[in-house]
Design goal:
65% helix, mainly alpha, 0% strand, 434 Repressor (Amino-terminal Domain), 5 helices, 77 residues
């Protein structure tokens, strides 16, 4: 999985949670320390998140990423 793919999965997961009422943008902003305007721009594909911000989002969503060497990742496909 590429960093771009991870970025898009975070966007989709967060949008889903906000649309279905399990999380609000304001609450998520407070949990992650990411400003509401930056979060809105991220959700609307106007901005990307830094690696540090992606880490904060993944912690708030209780996501984890396992990094594998490229050769091993290809074997698992």
């Amino acid at each position: 999985m590429s960093l771009a793919h991870t970025h898009e999965q975070l966007r989709c997961s967060l949008n889903y949670r906000i649309q279905h009422g399990t999380m609000s943008g304001k609450l998520f902003s407070a949990q992650t320390g990411i400003g509401q305007s930056h979060l809105s721009n991220f959700l609307h594909k106007k901005r990307k998140l830094s690696v540090e911000a992606m880490d904060a989002v993944m912690k708030a969503l209780h996501f984890d990423v396992e990094l594998l060497p490229l050769a091993r990742a290809k074997e698992q496909r």
